[in-house]
């Protein structure tokens, strides 16, 4: 990935259905490192696998956010079917089984995810003086033209 800054205003084509998947972890008891550290260290291997096999998995891109207690990863997927297939993947299943065995209902660490299936034409984005980012990294990043110079026009149904 490059950090090239695209000066001016850009948007994305919204001609494909997409899935936005938000997944994260919350450290509820920071001193319980033995509970939350294994959860935190499980994710990098899965992320590497997603980027290594993007096309066959249907994974498009992601952004990560780290806070004092909560982390969040926003992922973009080609379809719900692709996302659900990955949930049955060996690396993910191993991490999920390990979490349930080692953490289970312990209140030291929490995990969460949210899934949004979005139809073409029902999402839009704008980037001004930004590198490829978010949907602009996951989808076709294009300059804004007269026919896409407002959110209303970008949300226009295809």
Can you give a write-up of this model?
This protein has 158 residues and is of the alpha+beta class. It is 34% helix and 32% strand. It contains six helices and seven strands. A four-stranded antiparallel sheet has the order 3-4-2-5. A hairpin with a 3-residue loop joins strand 3 and strand 4. Helix 1 (33-52) packs antiparallel against helix 4. The relative contact order is 0.30. The model has no long low-confidence stretch (mean pLDDT 91).
- Shape designation: elongated
- Name the assembly state: single chain
Low-confidence stretches: none
- Topology order in helix (H) and strand (E) letters: EEHHEEHHEEHEH
Radius of gyration: 18 Å
Helix content: 25-40%
What is the distance, rounded to the nearest whole angstrom, between the alpha carbons of the first and last residues? 30 Å
Summarize the structure.
Helix content is 34%, strand content 32%.
Which helices and strands occur, and which strands form pairs?
Blueprint: E1 6-12, E2 18-27, H1 33-52, H2 54-57, E3 59-66, E4 70-77, H3 80-87, H4 90-102, E5 109-118, E6 127-130, H5 135-138, E7 141-143, H6 151-154
Antiparallel strand pairs: 1-6, 1-7, 2-4, 2-5, 3-4
Helix pairs in contact: 1-4
């Amino acid at each position: 990935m490059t950090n090239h800054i695209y000066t001016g205003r850009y948007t994305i084509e919204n001609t494909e259905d997409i899935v936005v998947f938000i997944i994260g972890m919350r450290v509820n008891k920071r001193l319980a490192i033995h509970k939350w550290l294994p959860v935190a260290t499980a994710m990098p291997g899965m992320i590497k696998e997603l980027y290594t096999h993007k096309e066959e998995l249907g994974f498009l891109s992601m952004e990560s956010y780290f806070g004092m207690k909560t982390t969040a990863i926003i992922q973009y997927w080609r379809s719900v079917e692709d996302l659900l297939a990955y949930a049955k993947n060996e690396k993910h299943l191993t991490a999920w089984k390990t979490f349930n065995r080692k953490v289970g209902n312990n209140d030291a660490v929490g995990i969460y995810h949210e899934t949004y299936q979005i139809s073409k034409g029902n999402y839009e984005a704008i980037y001004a003086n930004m590198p490829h980012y978010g949907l602009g990294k996951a989808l076709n990043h294009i300059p804004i033209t007269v026919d896409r110079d407002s959110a209303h026009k970008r949300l226009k149904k295809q």
